[in-house]
């Protein structure tokens, strides 16, 4: 079940923060207004949590929350600094935010200070991703890719193989992974 984004992390008070797999994309890059998590997403994540951690079958689900995940077209993070304007930027972490924000902060510090350092020579410095496709192609592609990845997860789970399915390899080629 590795193709549709999800995460699990132990909290400081020995609980499990478990998430992902929500609505993958809303037409026109819209976000929801109330921040509530769709009941279907909560059910799906609860079932997955209990599959991964059978001892948690009777554990109550304390909270559900939602957020926006901004994804660059090439799924590559970027850090940059424009010396002329004094503006810096960092983003596009796509699920690796905790580690990437730390590295981005250190990289930005070196860029702002004008240091020629190992961090300022990383490929993500001043990286520019291609623009996303126009609607409705973007919506159709994202929805289709998520469906393909869900199908790949089901095929791999049913066959018990650790080998990536053909469906996932095709979806990876289309998505740029």
Automatic annotation (TrEMBL):
Domain FAD dependent oxidoreductase: 4-111
Pfam families: DAO
Record field: transmembrane: none
Annotated protein name in UniProt: FAD dependent oxidoreductase
Lineage: Bacteria, Bacillati, Actinomycetota, Actinomycetes, Micrococcales
């Amino acid at each position: 079940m590795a193709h549709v984004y999800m995460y699990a992390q132990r909290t400081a008070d020995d609980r499990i923060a478990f998430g992902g797999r929500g609505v993958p994309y809303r037409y026109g890059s819209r976000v929801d207004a109330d921040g509530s998590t769709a009941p279907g997403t909560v059910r799906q994540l609860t079932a997955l949590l209990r599959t991964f951690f059978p001892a948690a079958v009777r554990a109550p689900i304390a909270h559900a929350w939602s957020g926006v995940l901004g994804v660059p077209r090439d799924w590559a993070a970027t850090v940059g600094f424009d010396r002329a304007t004094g503006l810096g930027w960092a983003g596009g972490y796509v699920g690796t935010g905790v580690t990437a924000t730390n590295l981005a902060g250190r990289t930005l510090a070196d860029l702002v200070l004008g240091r020629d350092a190992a961090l300022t020579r990383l490929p993500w410095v001043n990286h520019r991703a291609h623009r996303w496709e126009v609607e409705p192609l973007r919506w159709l592609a994202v929805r289709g890719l998520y469906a393909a990845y869900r199908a790949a997860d089901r095929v791999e789970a049913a066959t018990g193989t650790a080998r990536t399915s053909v469906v996932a390899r095709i979806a990876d080629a289309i998505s740029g992974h």
